[in-house]
Design brief:
The structure holds 3 protein chains of 3 kinds. Chain A has an 8-stranded mixed beta sheet with strand order 3-5-1-12-9-10-11-20, sandwiched between helices. Chain A has a 6-stranded mixed beta sheet with strand order 7-15-14-13-8-28, sandwiched between helices. Helix content of chain A is 27%, strand content 24%. By secondary structure, chain A is α+β, with helices and mostly antiparallel strands. Chain B is α+β, with helices and mostly antiparallel strands. Chain B has helices at 25-32, 88-95, 105-118, 124-130, 142-149; strands at residues 4-10, 13-19, 51-54, 57-60, 73-75. In chain B, helix 2 (88-95) packs across helix 5 (142-149). In chain B, 63% of the residues are buried. The mean pLDDT of chain C is 95. Chain C is globular. In chain C, helix 11 packs antiparallel against helix 12 (276-287) and helix 12 packs antiparallel against helix 13. The chains are: A alpha+beta, B alpha+beta, C alpha+beta. The interface between A and B is large, with 56 and 55 residues.
Chain lengths: 766, 153, 326
């Protein structure tokens, strides 16, 4: 590779100018003449029968242009799987507006379009309605009790479909042979994505049946397919435009009722309609992270090697399925992705309750599983008096392993991550030697770098080389802040041997760009990147072929680097990239140079029965070591240092990678100490605001030492894997282990509040 | 009571506007004046995404009524670029990777400007405190603090 | 936000005149950091807003020979950074500094801070659930606690404990009332002795005796943004050159519907030589006062515990400062 290689360097994002000047357009910045503003009336009751809805007073308010109730919108049910990429288990179970029943506090009952937001909000206050309160269930425990009120008549026992079970080997035999067995139960509470830009869209329906919609979404093509299905339009008549998106973290993957209602209102009024979640809507009625109960049982040999492991998980997923079943299936594979497990048993249920629906959130809740498992493992190591780092190294997966759920680890740097983080953090010198109330702990994590949800996990791209030698990349893989635009531009520039400034990434819209499933499951770098590489290589091939006559040289003897095309081994025989393009396109030799790329990974759908199947081509890994100091009088925990070692396959952009790691660690700190969506006994979300739902602030900022382990995954573009989620997964477990190291007691529930720490200290009798 | 006449000075330009009293400065900047860089993150003064500078000091514009800031100098993110060149703070944010989704960026940049105009060499602690009302979900604040520090004397 | 009519009086007299002409329908606009969000959430209602910020007599911090006078529209940022205040009453500047965030402090006023409505989630979000007006909203029920006969929400006035131990007095205009002590100003969470057409004009803080030490501590979930779970203000006046306490004031916030003085704890300290033992005893007693409630932030037990820890630490700090003073 040339000296000018972009790979591995600190490359500022190519869309920085727009974002730092405020000129970048987000969905809420788009204006269309005559546009209206929508607001939604939401159920104040968790489980209820709608007795009547009277919109007459609202309709009379000056400035109101339309008021819709359940009977005015398509009755077709929708869900996270609507459209053509069915997510396992994501049956359509949501109504655009509730007609007979509501299923959670926040369920939409009516929608208004008015000339401005304030008028629309006022109109909501004028809608008279009555909902009969029915008995509801709010905890998984209550929902699973025999005779509990059903959230949906068709979901017997309030369980989605069936309990997922995976059996590998014979756990009972394994436990029987174990030197030591340990059982633990852990709990994590509901959390919220809390991205800074709420979900928002602008829908413009044209009476010919054509629809244009700007949406803050992580999956524009899935949105298009879902809209087509619900409104019985053809996809060619729908254009989804993806402007800048202010964060996603999995919360903008599903189609949202605001998108559906914006279309309904636009159809009704003949005007464009902007619809957004305000911040309390975003906390109340958009997706959440599931609430988990995790039971673990492990049996080990005397030297600490795992023999048998049993996982039993219950997900409280709220009123609708969203991608909750997919999360459960994925968790099967997560269970033994870090440690070799000869005998494995996994059992899990996704439970319905009358809470707001839970869906995907950064790491698909793998972070919750590992909060439990990292602590469980740390305790086993302590119980049998083996150092946790040694224990982990003894059990850690290696390249070439195939897990119980048949995940194939073509690259796996977890051991190197453990060793390097232990080395840099001074683990050996500190563990067991720190003063009272100071502690050090380790946590491991992993995640997919791709996600075969339905039949396809494909991505496509086009590289258009302009007449002046500049390049535009059109990719269906979206960027919601994680930096994929820049990574892809780097790949194109690297392949074509041109400076990065020559490459522009076009705004994503579903009409101009080739399709992609969306950006979630950290699939962007690998799937999106591979498609981009294919497209770039194709463009390069076309240019090389165009030069064949010029030099009478076969394309295979040509190279592109440093802004020039030259004959391999004969740098003097070269031509500038711009000249080469002119040669190719002049005289109609090649015509417009448009490289196209498509990539469908050879991964597998997960089995609905037991969650098995290699759903991703590659997996990221990470280890974090955290040091803490506890105030024994208040239970306050101070983070002193974090060392994060991550296997990213290959460093493509060091600035981006460090940013992902730092962002993940701080989200992890936030999850650990502050985040919980609180519900009262009637299912009301008590803290739907940034004031009362705590996310970490700048005063929580802690030093993160980043170590990048390069395992050069054979499937990854340049060997790289996505790590936007695997960098989060270790954090809460590592912190919790450090706290245990400091006070000798475990907190087995997230969030870890000072009150819980103090209670633990007092119970221990410090 | 109908709309009231309000004179606002935004990024050095005078605007004469007619606004309803209940419309906040955030809405006026975005919808009446048409500057979209100031963002609505929560509309309740809890996140800092709507930060603007008024006479050089940062405020949550979602909690300000336009009548209250007549005659004051209002600076939004759009006011930083001069003759096509980025302000050094903007340049530092880019170079240090302090921008991910970009939604909190305008607010954070303005807070940084106000801080450095008042104290060209703030400690890391002081930088973090200045940013303590600007929520960011993407960066973990590390690169933002680093960007500001890169400019200190 | 709901529509309202807007008035910009130029004097206190004009402001009061507006209020008198709009009984029951007008609210004062000070910094706007509480009123505007709560109007948007429909937690507070107002058809008319009277902006006090253009009245010159309401701002400014000045000193005469016996007290510091703080205009009620002085911002929390000004209080936190004013040399007069940081020099003479560090606990007050610390308390002001601990509120919310920098942007909020720049706009929020001390007068407004005293008049805040409680951060009771049922009060703030009642419109989401179409709940009836609660006691805090002028109604006759409590949506948070079934069967409660009155509002039991914790006071949100985090500056309260600091002002109370300083013996703050309020000057009020708008009726025959001329002034009152801060302690008698607070009636219940969000409810004060102020009538709707009365304005606090000035907060007067008499000078503290020479050998006195002040301390203020705030315990909250995060280090910024959040209200206090518990806050503590302490002032100790010592005998010159001795460790004997002449006067002790200990005030607690977050332990009841109003910030209050823990008089039993004060009695333990007064007249005594201050030792670690005495401090612990006072702290223990303080932790048993008040009526802290349980909410999403903390249980009442933990609040009591924090009050004990806070009083112990604050008294120790005030003692150290008192010894260094004079």
């Amino acid at each position: 590779m040339s000296e000018e290689s972009l790979i591995g360097k600190k490359i500022p994002r190519i869309d920085s100018w727009e974002l730092v000047t405020g000129s970048g357009e987000f969905s809420g910045d788009v204006i269309l003449p005559g546009m209206l503003h929508g607001r939604i009336l939401r159920s104040p009751v968790a489980h209820g029968r709608i007795l009547h809805v009277d919109t007459s007073r609202a309709e009379k308010l000056y400035g109101v242009r339309a008021v819709l109730t359940g009977k005015d919108v398509p009755q077709k049910l929708y869900g996270a799987g609507s459209g053509k990429a069915p997510i396992p288990g994501a049956i359509p179970d949501e109504q655009i507006l509730c007609v007979e029943k509501v299923h959670y506090v926040g369920d939409p009952i009516a929608a208004v379009a008015a000339i401005d937001r304030d008028t629309a909000e006022e109109a909501l206050q004028l809608i008279d309605f009555e909902v009969e309160d029915l008995p509801g269930v709010f905890t998984a425990e209550d929902a699973l009790k025999p005779g509990a009120p059903l959230v949906h008549e068709w979901a017997k026992g309030n369980i989605y479909d069936h309990t997922v079970v995976l059996k590998v080997g014979d756990v009972e035999k394994g436990f029987g042979q174990s030197y030591y067995i340990r059982e633990d139960t852990y709990k994590t509470h509901t959390m919220n994505h809390a991205f800074l830009e709420t979900r928002i869209c602008l829908a413009d329906y044209d009476p010919r049946g054509k629809l244009t919609i700007w949406a803050s979404s992580q999956a524009p093509f899935r949105l298009r397919a879902a809209l087509a299905q619900v409104f019985e339009l053809s996809e060619k008549d729908i254009k989804v435009i993806h402007p800048f998106v202010g964060g996603g973290f999995g919360g903008k993957v599903d189609i949202d009722h605001i998108e559906l209602l914006a279309v309904c209102l636009s159809q009704k009024t003949g005007r464009p309609v902007r619809m957004e979640h305000n911040r309390s809507d975003q906390f109340l009625a958009a997706r959440h992270r599931h609430e988990w109960t995790i039971r673990l049982k492990s049996g080990v040999k005397k030297d600490g090697t795992f023999l048998a492991r049993s996982f039993d998980v219950i997900l409280n997923g709220g009123a609708y399925i969203s991608s909750g079943f997919k999360i459960l299936l994925n968790t099967v594979g997560f269970s033994d992705i870090l440690c070799r497990t000869p005998h494995l048993y996994f059992k899990g249920k996704r439970v319905y309750t009358n809470r707001p629906p839970s869906g995907a959130m950064r790491s698909f809740d793998h972070v919750n599983l590992r909060f439990a498992d990292n602590q469980h493992i740390d305790q086993i190591a302590r119980d049998i008096e083996i150092d946790t780092v040694d224990f982990l190294l003894r059990n850690a997966r290696e390249k070439g392993d195939i897990t119980g759920a048949r995940y194939i680890l073509r690259s796996c740097g977890i051991k190197e991550c453990i060793e390097k983080s232990a080395d840099v953090s001074g683990w050996k010198e500190k563990r067991g030697r720190l003063p009272k109330f100071k502690g050090i702990g380790i946590g491991l994590g992993s995640h997919t770098a791709g996600f075969k949800s339905g039949e396809s996990d494909a991505s496509a791209a086009m590289v258009r080389v302009h007449e002046d030698g500049s390049i535009t990349l059109l990719t269906g893989t979206e960027d919601h802040g994680q930096g994929s635009r820049t990574i892809f531009a780097q790949m194109v520039a690297e392949t074509l041997g041109v400076p990065l400034e020559k490459v522009k990434v076009s705004v994503l819209d579903t009409e101009s760009c080739p399709p992609c499933m969306g950006c979630y499951g950290s699939r962007g770098t690998l799937q999106g990147g591979r498609a981009v590489l294919v497209a770039a290589e194709d463009a390069k091939r076309q240019i090389f072929e165009g030069l064949e006559d010029l030099w009478e040289i076969s394309p295979k003897d040509l190279q592109a680097a440093d802004g020039r095309i030259f004959v391999s081994g004969v740098p003097s025989k070269s031509i500038s990239f711009e000249e080469a393009v002119k040669v190719c396109q002049g005289g109609g030799k090649v015509g417009p140079i448009i490289g196209k790329g498509f990539f469908e990974p050879s991964s597998e759908r997960l089995s609905i029965d037991d969650g098995s199947g290699n759903l991703s081509l590659a997996y990221g890994f990470g280890a974090q070591i955290v040091e803490v100091e506890i105030d024994p009088e208040t239970g306050d925990v101070k983070i002193l240092n974090v060392v994060a070692a991550n296997d990213c396959g290959r460093v493509l952009n060091l600035l981006s990678l460090n940013g992902q790691s730092e962002g993940s660690v701080h989200m992890g700190i936030s999850h650990t100490f502050y985040e919980q969506v609180h519900f009262d006994k009637k299912g009301r979300t008590l803290n739907p605001s940034f004031l009362n739902y705590g996310i970490a602030t700048s005063l929580d900022m802690t030093k993160v030492e980043n170590i990048w382990v390069e395992t050069e995954d054979p499937e990854g573009p340049f060997g790289a894997k996505g790590i936007g989620e695997s960098t989060l997964v270790p954090t809460p477990g590592a912190i919790a282990n450090a706290i245990c190291d400091a006070i000798g007691v475990r907190i087995k529930e997230l969030p870890i509040t000072p009150e819980k720490v103090l209670k633990a200290i007092n119970e221990k009798g410090h | 009571m109908g709309k009231q006449e309000v004179f606002l000075n935004v990024n050095g330009q005078e605007y004469r506007l007619y606004v309803d009293p209940h419309v906040t400065l955030l809405d006026v900047i975005r919808d009446e004046i048409g500057l979209k860089g100031t963002k609505r993150g929560c509309d309740l003064g809890e996140c800092g995404a709507c930060t603007v500078l008024i006479d050089g000091r940062p405020y949550n514009s979602c909690l300000i009524l336009p009548m209250d800031v007549q005659g004051r100098e209002i600076l939004t993110i759009e006011g930083l670029v001069r003759e096509g060149k980025l302000h050094p703070i903007q340049q530092a944010f880019i170079e240090q990777g302090a921008i991910q989704c970009g939604f909190c960026t305008p607010g954070a940049v303005l807070v940084a400007k106000a801080l450095l105009d008042e104290d060209p060499s703030p400690s890391e602690e002081k930088i973090k405190e200045a940013l303590s009302g600007n929520l960011c979900r993407c960066t973990g604040y590390t690169s933002i603090v680093r960007a500001i520090r890169s400019l200190t004397g | 936000m709901m529509r309202f009519e807007y008035y910009e009086p130029k004097s206190i007299a004009e402001a009061i005149s507006f209020a008198n002409h709009l009984p029951g329908k007008a609210k004062w606009l000070a910094g706007g950091t509480e009123l505007l969000p709560k109007l948007k959430q429909r937690a507070l209602m107002a058809d008319h807003i009277i902006n006090l910020k253009k009245i010159p007599e309401l701002v400014g911090i000045s000193q005469n020979d016996s007290a510091i006078r703080i205009g009620s529209l002085t911002t929390l940022e000004e209080l936190a950074t004013s040399k007069l205040v940081t020099r003479s009453f560090p606990a007050l500047s610390e308390a002001a500094y601990g509120v919310a965030t920098p942007n909020i402090r720049r706009a929020a006023t001390i007068g407004g801070n005293l008049c805040q409505a409680p951060n009771c989630l049922y009060f703030v979000h009642r419109n989401l659930w179409r709940l009836p007006e609660c006691y805090g909203a002028g109604g006759n029920t409590c949506n948070a606690i079934k069967g409660a006969r009155k509002c039991t929400a914790m006071s949100p006035v985090d500056t309260g404990p600091a002002l109370i131990v300083l013996g703050a007095e309020l000057e009020i205009k708008g009726s025959e009332k001329k002034g009152m002590s801060l302690e008698s100003f607070f009636l219940s969470s969000g409810v004060s002795a102020l009538h709707e057409s009365e304005i606090i004009t000035t907060i007067v803080i008499p000078d503290s005796p020479l050998q006195s030490g002040l301390a203020y501590l705030k315990y909250s979930r995060r280090k910024t943004i959040d209200y206090a779970i518990v806050s503590v203000g302490v002032r100790l006046v010592l005998e010159p050159d001795r460790d004997r306490c002449l006067q002790a004031r200990v005030a607690l916030g977050g332990m009841g519907t109003i910030p209050f003085r823990a008089s039993e704890a004060e009695e333990i300290l007064t007249g005594e030589r201050i030792t670690a033992v005495i401090i612990s005893k006072a702290a223990e007693v303080a932790s048993q006062t008040g009526q802290p409630w349980t909410d999403i932030y903390a249980s009442n037990y933990y609040r009591r515990h924090l009050a004990g820890v806070g009083v112990r630490r604050a008294v120790s700090l005030a003692f150290t400062r008192a010894r260094a003073a004079g």
